[in-house]
Design goal:
heterodimer, A: mainly alpha, MetI-like fold, 10 helices, B: 253 residues, alpha/beta, 2 domains, 8 helices, 9 strands, 37% helix, binds adenosine-5'-triphosphate, binds magnesium ion
């Protein structure tokens, strides 16, 4: 009962704040500003008109979204998989850590978009290059967090498991991996937004579809409505992604939540 | 009883000239004693005298400075020897439910599924946590967590059971219950138990032998046999007399 009431309150607040924002936006562009900036109605109209029916460029909005999403997902999961394996190995084995950590420390601070020019020169920034950039964005954060998660496993857990007869492999899979999950998820979350930013940057530089392309194409045509529609779509999809992410995390890290 | 006496001659744990220093701090000072197979040894000693250090040395968590501890004639190896160690603090895995925690040691040893389920159910029931089997450690109180550790250790039915002040956090009723449960388990399985406690009454109630340690640098002050028949009555005059004797030994700390 209480929880339901809380949810309803939250929903009302959300609706009120978004509506207020839209109304202020609507009023704000009535005057001089209106020449530089479209109001919310044309943007929302365009979003829904192009979602399945009309097109931006040669594709509907949903196809543009799917292009961006597929690029993100391919690079994200690839980077996450490699990152978890490498990070846990670095946290678990001194040798692996000694070999990889110097290299990793240098690569990590380089933002993925810094690789864009090189990618263009080398391989023309096609699909594989875009996915590679997104891979980097995801890989770095996930590795870092898996690494620190594995290094900071409470020695009491390892000790208790060892006492119950666990061998090295069992310690890795029954203690180090599950104990690192919250840290890995923190990395996965940052990685997801970083991947989302990277795909847009890559699409803005070179592509013929995707949400980043919508914005750049809008700029080239001086079409403010299209730019704002692209931005709206980026916001909505990003929000959806993080909502899905939190649901998955809540399921997998149930034990880590204090109280319910 | 007769048969038990004969079997008991075998030494389970042999401690010889055990010395343990942390840097300059001499904790265990040339300690030697034997624990017979099937014994239930209660160890009492002042706080900080090295009781936990002894168990950690026995199980190879710490390296000893000199001397040795042998289990069945060789240094202990938790992977092969069937040891269960109930730590002084909480050591449950927060990502496992109560039930999964209790089954953890059985999983590690690849106990068949049915047997695992039976053992888990049985020990959950014994420590009174059946209702909480799907809870996570975060949702439990300190005494409930301790019961999870106890069930986890008992469920593996070890040959050597090490207990470091396991019942300190529990209320009296539960403590009595789990003391009896320990005795029952010990009588049933013939396992060797080393039980560390601050509670003299508990030591006299449980122990076949009672070992009193001195202050640091620690040596064995006295080891005595406890001849009282079981089940013991904590109000019986012999019980009270023995308890006072141990208390007197401790007064001289
Ligand atoms: N890892 C360690 N490093 C340095 N000193 C330690 C370490 N572990 C224990 N000590 C010291 O060794 C002494 C014995 O500690 P130990 O924990 O074995 O005592 P204890 O008898 O178990 O005490 P309590 O009854 O409070 O549990 C203490 O003085 C403690 O400070
Ligand atoms: Mg202790």
């Amino acid at each position: 009962m209480n929880k339901k009431q809380k949810n309803i309150t939250e929903l009302i607040c959300a609706v009120v704040s978004i509506l207020t924002f839209l109304i202020l936006w609507h009023i704000g562009v009535k005057g001089e500003l209106g020449r530089l900036m479209p109001g919310p109605l044309p943007v929302i109209r365009m979003f829904f008109a192009t979602l399945f029916g009309g097109t931006i460029g040669s594709r509907t909005m949903i196809i543009h979204i799917l292009y961006s999403l597929i690029r993100v997902m391919a690079g994200y999961f690839l980077g996450a998989a490699v990152g978890v394996v490498l990070g846990l190995s670095m946290g678990w084995s001194r040798l692996v850590e000694a070999v990889f950590s110097p290299l990793f420390r240098i690569i990590r601070p380089i933002p993925p978009i810094a690789w864009i020019p090189i990618s263009i020169i080398w391989i023309g920034l096609g699909e594989d290059a875009k996915i590679f950039l997104i891979f980097l964005a995801s890989f770095c954060y996930v590795t870092l967090n898996a690494w620190s998660g594995a290094k900071n496993v409470d020695p009491d857990y390892l000790r208790a498991a060892r006492m119950l007869g666990a061998g090295k492999r069992q310690l890795l899979f029954t203690i180090v991996l599950p104990a690192s999950i919250p840290s890995i998820f923190a990395g996965l979350q940052v990685a997801l937004s970083s991947c989302w930013a990277t795909v847009l940057a890559a699409e803005m530089v070179r592509s013929s579809e995707g949400l980043g392309w919508i914005i750049i194409a809008g700029m080239n045509n001086n079409d403010m409505v299209q730019i704002m529609t692209g931005i709206l779509a980026i916001g909505l999809v990003g929000m959806l992604l993080s909502m899905i992410f939190r649901k998955v995390e809540a399921r997998l890290c149930q034990w880590n939540k204090s109280g319910s | 009883m007769e048969i038990r006496e004969k079997e008991n001659r075998q030494v389970k744990v042999k401690v010889s000239h055990l010395t343990k220093k942390f840097g300059d701090l001499l904790v265990l000072n040339d300690i030697s004693f034997d624990v017979e197979k099937g014994d239930l040894l209660c160890v009492v000693g002042p706080t900080g005298c090295g009781k936990t250090t002894f168990l950690n040395s026995l199980t190879k968590i710490y390296d000893v400075t000199s001397g040795e501890i042998l289990l069945d004639g060789h240094p202990a190896d938790p992977k092969k020897d069937h040891i269960a160690y109930i730590f002084q603090g909480n050591s449950t895995m927060p990502w496992l439910t109560v039930e999964q925690n209790v089954a953890f040691g059985l999983d590690i040893r690849h106990v068949p599924k049915r047997e695992k389920q039976e053992l888990t159910d049985r020990y959950l029931e014994i420590v009174g946590l059946t209702k909480y089997r799907r809870y996570y450690p975060k949702q439990l109180s300190a005494s409930m967590l301790q019961r999870v550790s106890i069930a986890r250790a008992f469920a593996t039915e070890p040959e050597l059971l090490l207990m470091d002040e396991p019942y300190g956090q529990l209320d009296i009723e539960l403590r009595f219950k789990l003391e009896d449960e320990l005795v029952r388990l010990w009588e049933m399985t013939g396992t060797t138990v080393i039980f560390i406690t601050h509670n003299i009454e508990e030591a006299v109630y449980l122990g076949e032998h009672i070992m009193v340690l001195t202050n640091k640098p620690t040596t064995v002050k006295e080891t005595m046999r406890n001849p009282l028949p079981r089940p013991r009555d904590i109000a019986a005059p012999e019980f009270v007399r023995l308890r006072e004797r141990v208390t007197d030994l401790i007064r001289w700390w």
